[in-house]
Here is the input.
Amino acid sequence: MIESIGAQLIGSPASALQVRHPGGELGKDEFLQLLVSQLRNQDPMNPSDPKDFAAQLAQFSSVEQLLKIGDAISAQSDLSNALIGSVNSVAALGLIGKNVIVEGNAIELPAQGEASVRVKVGDAGGSGQLIVRDDTGVEVARVPISNTAAGAQTIDLTKLVGTLPAGHYTYDVELTDSAGGPVSVTKYSKLRVDGLRYTPNGPVLMSGGVSLTLGQVVEIND
Here is the structure.
């Protein structure tokens, strides 16, 4: 439709044609200027069809209404995102001092007491070992795992407390089934939230040297 209007303006004054924005987009005011220029410069012996003119106005009105609807939806989306961000910030603040379970392979060994990790064993379960590494990636301990069933399992690491210095470690689990094939294992970490950092992408929970988002938390414990 815009092209048909432009075609009828050949020979019109230059000022009537130079109405586009620097980006090349045609705005509401520019569109109306083109319509007025079309009427002023139409051939008196061959005037524009009133039906075409009415169709152009109707099309313009429809587009304008769609733009208004789009702006309203965008504003509502911005409001919803702001509300979600506020709720997440309050929720993250409430997690300080609590223990959370997240998908990952971090271990925090205490100076005394109990320690364990939670895993989800796939297939039909199996046997193998849990390998503990220090913060440089060097292996420092192995814990044997015998006949572990499929599903959620807790592996006790209390015997490592006092044997290894208290601090941050990582772990891997290697299991094989009765036929010697590898068994899939999803690893989880139990971390205590001791800080909170706000970023443009939302709040980030801090636990020692570990950073995690709310989306990584699968369970919360007092």
